[in-house]
Specification:
This is Bodo-specific multi-copy gene family, putative. It comes from Bodo saltans (Flagellated protozoan). The chain is α/β, with parallel strands linked by helices. The protein is built from 27 helices and 17 strands. The chain folds into 5 domains: 43-94, no CATH class; 102-337, Rossmann fold, CATH 3.40.50; 360-413, no CATH class; 418-518, no CATH class; 545-668, no CATH class. It starts with 8 loop residues before the first helix and ends in a 12-residue tail after the last strand.
């Protein structure tokens, strides 16, 4: 079509600042609310027959400079003859530019249920730390990479939303913030997936890629498509040929489009969620020479960000090992770990109910629900989700408790993507370690039930389990944490499972919770005996020797001054936990044995001395306070273990055990 030039155009263009910059004739996806809604800033949404008066009405209140009636006539003529490109340029020169809608933007680019951002509990320190380290001082020559190793269900999305809306809202509104979910970007139905596809071309497993540096190109594609999205203007790819030019174009285009003043400094920032999808791939050629290993694609993408800009990545990627840098990169980068998003404490959970979620929990379920979920925000919120009948598992389900509990377990399983069931052998060992508060290292190998070993089953570390969102690792306590509700009895093959999850966590039994959390007689004691057996299994599966050091079973639960009293003992519990029919049969070989008495539970474990291995005997475990006269009943060669009590016997005769150091259900005591 021949381009029509109108007499008044020169005057309008002059006041608009000179040369008319060609812009897109399509709307901005991150600014628009609907494809069919009329938008004052986008003539593509205007009816072609609109008059000057119609245009004047829609522009009313959105004009930044004076516009005459002749100008409106010019707008109408441009619309009539289809010169949308010129009309769009003029509108942007004269009209207020709409800011990026924060809620719509986050809903589009994050995996979220579109619920509004809520007040977070026990996250203030990390939000403040993230804000501080991403605030790069002027004149610095360092890129900043910040990461948080947080699993699914830990509240990652709400954390990101809260950080953006409270600390980086201005950057989002003027297009200087990119937020993406890697899992969402990988979806083949997502039109915004090109950058992710390009980065994955650099995977060491991709033998067909001929691109020299697809990771850098992917970063440039991400920036270019973001700029197109927030400005509505197509971008020349040559201006995004490398990361430095891409950032320069990003800053320049958003400054022009959003009419930012020269002294209005808003640093560009990239935030990526669910980054485990990139962390699982090694880069095909980029090697961390001092560490002697390839960089992951996540590390390579982070290092592609030029100084002095920042990137924040979060996900269940086990660990980020960007340091040490090679000699060139070391001077140009800073890496910060703000730590994982930890489960809520009991107090934080109580505050979240009232201040964040505005929900109530039945009084009998309040404490069991916290322990079922280990304080994981997503699992707590799932329990509050209402069914069509208006009840939830956590509230008002007294008459339909079994159905609600089964529905809740199904919802939890779905939320983890069946991760625990698909990785059952490793997830089960992680549950034993979590339930017994065993001390483990992130890079420690997970030893599994030998009956479940298969030739194709790969060896995992606890970091690998984090990557698969099986649980999280607390580096301070060295504990691995698995929410009990994530691995229930129905998920394990019971004939070959030595301990059912509900034997370690009685509140996994629907009957227990339906009774209002009423404790059965000796409920804690029985669960603790299974915890002792679980500790034994974790050592036995590592050594494959049925006799294991007693101090390893009770590691961390014995007063350091008394550890020497058990160093010379070994224990064999290879036949499991047995209930004896009578007191006369309570000392059974190779077992944890108990007799469920009227007043108390009597139990023992099968031991021997390292120096005299032919002599085997039962060592009693007492759950009630001991007096000297009770000790006289036991042979002098044997230990006496006192669980959560006090003893008037000499210290060299009774070893006191802190049950809270090796059981997660001491709240039942």
């Amino acid at each position: 079509m021949r381009r029509v030039v109108w007499p008044l155009m020169s005057g309008i263009v002059s006041r608009a600042g000179g040369k008319v910059r060609q812009t897109s004739t399509h709307q901005s996806p991150d600014v628009a609310n609907s494809d069919t809604q009329l938008k004052y800033y986008d003539p593509n949404t205007w009816p072609k027959g609109w008059t000057a008066e119609d245009i004047k009405k829609i522009l009313y209140g959105n004009i930044s400079t004076s516009v005459t009636d002749q100008n409106y006539e010019t707008f109408a003529n441009l619309l009539k003859f289809g010169d949308i490109r010129t009309l769009t340029s003029l509108l942007r020169a004269y009209c207020h530019v709409p800011e990026v809608d924060a809620n719509l933007y986050l809903e589009k680019h994050l995996e979220t249920d579109a619920s509004p951002a809520m007040r977070l509990q026990e996250r203030d320190r990390q939000i403040m730390e993230l804000d501080n380290v991403l605030t790069v001082p002027r004149g610095t020559a360092r890129r900043v990479v910040v990461f948080s190793n947080s699993i699914r269900g830990s509240g990652k999305t709400e954390f990101l939303k809260s950080f953006v809306l409270t600390r980086r809202l201005e950057a989002l509104k003027c297009g200087r913030l990119i937020v993406r979910c890697c899992r969402k970007a990988q979806d083949t139905r997502n039109p915004d997936r090109a950058w992710m596809t390009r980065v994955l071309e650099d995977s060491a497993t991709n033998s067909t890629s001929t691109t020299l540096n697809a990771t850098d190109e992917g970063l440039c594609d991400l920036i270019r498509t973001h700029v197109e999205s927030v400005t509505g203007s197509p971008q020349d790819a040559s201006n995004y040929s490398n990361s430095a030019s891409a950032y320069g174009s990003w800053i320049r285009e958003t400054k022009t489009h959003f009419k930012m003043q020269d002294n209005h400094d808003v640093d560009p920032l990239i935030i990526l969620d669910n980054c485990e999808l990139l962390a699982q791939h090694h880069h095909k050629s980029f090697v961390n020479k001092p560490a002697g290993r390839p960089f992951s694609l996540l590390e390579a993408l982070s290092l592609a960000v030029p100084a002095p800009y920042g990137i924040f990545v979060i996900g269940s990627f086990g660990t980020m090992r960007l340091l040490p840098f090679h000699s060139v990169t070391r001077a140009l980068g800073s890496v910060f770990d703000i730590g994982p998003l930890a489960p809520l404490s009991n107090a934080g959970y109580a505050k979240a109910l009232t201040e964040s979620w505005n929900k109530e929990v039945d009084v009998n379920l309040h404490e069991p629900l916290f322990h079922l979920t280990e304080g994981m925000p997503r699992l707590l919120r799932l329990a509050l989700s209402q069914e069509p009948q208006g009840v939830s598992f956590a509230r008002g389900s007294a008459n339909a408790f079994s159905r609600c509990f089964e529905g809740y377990k199904t919802a939890v399983k779905r939320s983890y993507g069946n991760a625990h069931e698909q990785s059952l052998a490793h997830a089960y060992s992680c549950l034993l370690a979590s339930s017994t508060k065993a001390t483990v290292q992130g890079d420690e190998v997970i030893h599994i039930n030998p009956l479940w070993r298969e030739p194709a089953l790969k060896s995992w570390t606890y970091n690998d389990a984090i990557f698969h969102s099986i649980g999280l690792h607390n580096e301070q306590s060295k504990r691995f944490i698995v929410p009990p509700i994530a691995l229930v009895d129905e998920m394990v093959p019971q004939p070959t499972t030595p301990i059912l999850p509900s034997q370690l966590h009685p509140f996994l039994d629907a009957n227990f919770i339906e009774r209002g959390g009423a404790r059965d007689k000796n409920m804690f004691e029985k669960a603790f005996l299974y915890a002792v057996f679980a500790r034994y299994l974790l050592v036995f599966w590592r050594t494959m020797n049925p006799w294991v050091p007693l101090n390893e079973v009770f590691d961390g639960a014995i007063n350091p001054e008394q550890v020497k009293l058990i160093d010379c003992f070994e224990v064999n519990l290879s036949d499991g936990v047995h209930e004896a029919p009578s007191k006369g049969q309570k000392n059974q070989k190779k077992t944890v044995t108990y007799v469920d008495g009227v007043k108390s539970l009597e139990s023992s474990i099968w031991c021997r001395k390292v120096a005299r291995r032919s002599a085997e005997f039962a060592v009693p475990l007492h759950f009630r306070n001991l007096r000297s006269r009770n000790i006289k009943k036991h042979p002098k060669r044997a230990l006496v273990l006192q669980i959560n009590g006090w003893s008037k016997a000499p210290e060299n005769e009774v070893v006191e055990v802190d049950a809270s150091a090796m059981s997660s259900v001491t709240w039942l005591w």
